[in-house]
Amino acid sequence: MGKDTSGSTAKLDTALNRLAAARAGRARPATGFVSQPEPRTIGSFAKGRQLIQGNFLFAGFLIEGPGVNIWDLPMPDPAFEEALQGCGWLDDLAAVGDREARIRAQDWVFGWIDRFGGGKGPGWTPDLTGRRLIRWINHAILLLNGRERDDSDRFFRTLGQQTIFLSKRWTSTAPGLPRFEALTGLIYAGLALTGMERHAAPAIEALTKECEAQIDAEGGLPTRCPEELLEVLTLLNWANEALITAGRTPPGALRDSISRIAPTLRALRHSDGALARFHGGGRGLEGRLDAALSATGIRGVRREPMAMGFVRMQGGRSSLIIDAARPPQGLASANAHASTLAFELTSSRRPMIVNCGSGAHFGRDWHRAGRATASHSTLSIYGYSSSRLGPERLFGRAPRAYLDKTPKDVWARTDDATESGMIFGHDGYTETHGMTHIRELDLSTDGRELRGRDTLGAMTPQDIARFEQIFEREGLRGIPFDIRFHLHPDCDATLDMGGTAVSVALRSGEIWVFRHDGVADLALEPSVYLEKGRIRPRASLQIVLSSKVLDRACQIGWTFSQARDNPSAIVAP
Predict the structure, then answer these.
(1) What's the CA gap between 485 and 343, in Å, rounded?
(2) pLDDT (0 to 100) of residue 570
(3) How far is the CA of 412 from the CAs of 278, 322, 440, 546, in angstroms?
(4) Average pLDDT value for residue range 14-25
(5) Could you tell me which residues are beta bridge partners of residue 413?
(6) Burial code of 236-254, b = ≥16 C-beta within 10 A, e = fewer?
(7) pLDDT, tens digit, 9 for 90 and up, residues 274-310
(8) Average pLDDT of 412-440?
(9) Burial class (CB within 10 angstroms; exposed 0-12, middle 13-18, buried 19+) of 109
(10) Prediction pTM value
(11) How many CA atoms lie within 13 A of 1 on its CB side?
(12) For the chain, what percentages of helix, strand and coil (3-state, to nearest 5) are there?
């Protein structure tokens, strides 16, 4: 294996960013807006009020500082500092929109200009600069309201300097969301600022190429992260609207990408309106998904069974989304999870079965734990994940472990026996134990019952030989495995029927009952729900079926069903 040069590459990028920022800092370019910008970003009124009161919650860290300037805060983590430098908090202050919010927004933005405007500080990276430009331009009316001419001149001069920096350094961003942020910011500035028009055309051409390279024919991204796909669609919508407002025709590749992404996002949306939480993504900011889909003007849904490697099953008011493709590979796996064949189940407006989620906002240990198979609602061999992490390398300013070993074969097909169900499988454990995981799922047409069956077994002569080798090495004690069903923290769950079933109560009043065929041991254990915007993980519960493979294969059947007068009993495999 070659020597890891990520550290030296990161240092070189930092040095080149500083050089380009210093050169841009000496420029005196933009003098005003070509046309008056309109806010397009969506913020949170509640978060805006918290900021005004001096409660700074970013990247899982809460710092209380009433009356403290945002740039005087201690920086507990690089992710906290990035959140400040990207100026996404402007959206939240604009959502409040009163005099106090305007004063905070102006003080903090002009404070940034005073401290960092000459090309200094950690915010001079292309993705953060693009993010910041979009917010400053979107909220220019709020930021310039009541300010003197000198402040207005400083504001436009700094916007122009950031635009020049971005035009020189956007190529250094990682493909994917960071590059989309940088290019969208450059397009925004090129179209909106006087004297910056020359930067628009190259940025539009580059964005077109990025769409063609990163967005596949099915409207998916290499990272396979639903929330990241939402952020990319939002940026493309903004770029498209900015072009139309400027009287330019958006490139065909841009419109085609938007038309492919929209149906895919609809397929990754649960019945409660939130996104499935896979590969580092969350449910999505409140209102962001609806706004992005509405802005596309596209009402179609995907007719294919799979969207970005996920299968969506719908029955009545229940939705089930399962990860049914290979995990992301290479650079795209920096935030990917070992979630193959994991699923989430939502009943009406209430999520029930979930994955723990991304722990990235709670520190490196939680981030790593959240990526493990045991943090997802699927089967895992004790002590192993279906995909394994490699050594850490730099990803932006923070180290990340990329997925090293992943399943080579992941498949999904319709179950001919049921017609409404599907069968999935992956070979992620063949190398370690000679085992293949097969999962059968059937969601009833009324959405009131989910039947499942999980099989862990050796399928080929080579797999059987590997299993027997491990079996003998373990002293004929078998290969232990667990099937986990993580419950949303709003669910109340209790062991029932003498410990042979679990009753799950949703806040809607629905009661769901989990049963199994008796092959495994049933337990109700503690779990966590890792959610962005909170200070610490939320406590929750998980249903766990535990068993061992003793003779080349073990098969376990189970059901989730809404409580009825005559609940149907599970048929043992």
Answers:
(1) 9
(2) 42
(3) 18, 10, 10, 25
(4) 67
(5) 423
(6) bbbbbebbeeeeeebbebb
(7) 999 999 999 988 888 999 999 998 887 777 779 999 9
(8) 92
(9) buried
(10) 0.91
(11) 5
(12) 40, 25, 35
Name the helix (H) or strand (E) containing 83. Answer: helix 78-85
Q: Are strands 343-347 and 435-443 parallel, antiparallel or unpaired?
A: unpaired
Q: Is the dihedral of CA 294, 297, 299, 302 positive or negative?
A: negative
Q: Of 200, 213, 278, nearest to 239 (Cα)?
A: 200
Length of the chain: 573
What does the pLDDT look like over 20-62, one tens digit per residue? 666 665 656 767 888 776 777 778 899 999 999 999 999 888 9
321 phi, psi to nearest 5 deg: -125, 125
Bridge partners (DSSP) of residue 443 are 450
- What is the distance between the alpha carbons of residues 362 and 532, in angstroms, rounded to a whole number? 9
Contacts 24+ apart (CB under 8 A), 527-532: 527/356, 527/486, 527/487, 528/356, 529/354, 529/356, 529/357, 529/486, 529/488, 529/489, 530/356, 530/357, 530/358, 530/359, 530/361, 530/362, 530/366, 530/370, 531/282, 531/357, 532/60, 532/282, 532/358, 532/361
Which residues, 6+ apart, have CB-to-CB distance to 206 below 8 Å? 170, 183
d(CA 408, CA 402): 16
Alpha-carbon distance of 97 to 52, in angstroms, equals 11
Predicted local distance difference test score (pLDDT) of residue 443: 96
Distances, alpha carbon 313 to alpha carbons 317, 349, 356, 377, 420, in Å: 11, 16, 21, 16, 9
Q: What are phi and psi of 517, to 5 degrees?
A: -90, 5
Question: Is the Cβ–Cβ distance between 387 and 340 less than 8 Å?
Answer: yes
Who wins on pLDDT, 41 or 187? 187
pLDDT surpasses 50 at 417: yes
CA distance 371 to 485: 16
Q: Are 151 and 115 in contact (CB under 8 A)?
A: no
Could you give the CA distance from residue 29 to residue 98 in angstroms, rounded to a whole number? 32
Residue with tokens 């919650």: 57
539 DSSP β-pair partners? 528
Q: DSSP code of 488?
A: P
d(CA 530, CA 507): 20
Average pLDDT over residues 515-530: 96
β-pair partners for 61: 58
